[in-house]
Amino acid sequence: MKQIDALDLNENQRRVIQQIFNNKLISRVQISKDLNINKATISSILNKLKEKKLVNEVGHGESTKSGGRKPILLEINKHFGYVISLDIAYGSIEMIYNYFNGEILKHESIPLSNKKMSHVLDLLKQHINTDEKYGTHHGLLGISISVHGIVNNNQEIVHLPFHEIEDISITESIKDIANVPIIVENEANLSAIYECNENNDLEVNNLITLSIHKGIGAGLIIDKKLYRGTDGEAGEIGKTLVSVIQNNHKTFHKIEDICSQDALVHNLEERLNQKLTMTALKKLYYDKNEIVVDEINQFSMRIAILIYNLNMQINPEAIYINCPLINELPDVLEAIKSAFMTYTNKNVEICLTSNVKFSTLLGATLAITQKVLKIDNIKLNF
């Protein structure tokens, strides 16, 4: 694996790096106060971090009320290197490249012509150029991979419902493309990591992200730590069985087969006898088409019940929903919240994820940056 000597940091150096990440612009004096480390030691650490090109000095801050020299401010050097985060979605590979400070360098969407993992890897070989440094000192530092499936604690994909794994180890295959640190993680878990980081200032210690797309998954943050379960299957709520009466017989279905976004669209297309784009669905909804309004009302009620059950089991402070349809139809979120409140008076925040388009990819960027720096704490503010 590619070794970068500049990333061989001791614990105090990592703590200082984390302080600079989390405060954007910060002085030596403030770092000394925040970490309770004397100024001389902080100055020595910062000199080494500057030599390693991990941090930059960027002008001066305001002097204190008593006057005196204006403090020199420090920031993360975005040109130290970059990371790649990719999401193996149903019909495409979504990729973002981020500078070391988290700033987005570029975004690519690569269509998939089939669902085989070998096809995914062929496309990645074509698009990832490890010789390209993008104006950074060290080039590619690491790759983070988001999948819509189950990843065990050994970073192995054990279930991928929408793609054919073909007995391929994606981790080992990516190492053949780029000899850098690699993370593979479930997309809902990465979205949860992003939300925990994004809302750190609100002191939200326990939260759930609910991803509603082709299936339904949940990312669980408990005491500010990602909870994965014994084999990485925590949060697979879409596989929960619910009873359904069909032709006077009770049968059981996975809940995601009934109330995922894809299940909703499928029901609508069958009842309307037409294919639906998101634009067409929105128009029918706002035109108050009876079938569309009826199906979306049922969808809202089912999601509200699902959230109620999650709330009773996990008791979070906040639940963040990542669903393109709800993002496009804000009325649906209000309907879900209203229905939820008919079952409980518990005060839990229910809202859309902070970044519907990029929350999973930015969570992946956060995770791989932490791995590169060997920082375990979720808090690393981009």
In short:
By secondary structure, the chain is of the alpha/beta class. It contains 13 helices and 17 strands.
Walk me through this protein's architecture.
Belongs to the ROK (NagC/XylR) family. Transcriptional repressor of xylose-utilizing enzymes. It comes from Staphylococcus nepalensis. There is one protein chain. α6 (187-198) packs across α13 (359-373) and α8 (261-272) packs antiparallel against α10 (290-314). The protein has helices at residues 11-23, 28-35, 39-51, 117-127, 170-177, 187-198, 256-259, 261-272, 278-286, 290-314, 324-328, 330-341, 359-373; strands spanning 26-27, 55-60, 72-76, 82-88, 92-99, 104-111, 140-147, 150-151, 157-159, 182-186, 207-212, 216-222, 225-227, 241-246, 249-254, 318-322, 349-352. 36% of the residues are buried. The protein has 13 helices and 17 strands. Helix content is 38%, strand content 24%. The longest helix is centred in the C-terminal third of the chain and has 25 residues, at 290-314. The model has no long low-confidence stretch (mean pLDDT 91). The chain is an alpha/beta fold and 382 residues long. The chain has a five-stranded mixed sheet, sandwiched between helices. Strands 13-12-11-16-17 form a five-stranded mixed sheet, with helices on both faces. The chain has three domains: 5-76, Arc Repressor Mutant, subunit A; 82-192 and 359-373, Nucleotidyltransferase, domain 5, CATH 3.30.420.40; 203-354, 2-Layer Sandwich (Nucleotidyltransferase, domain 5), CATH 3.30.420. β8 and β9 (157-159) form a beta hairpin.
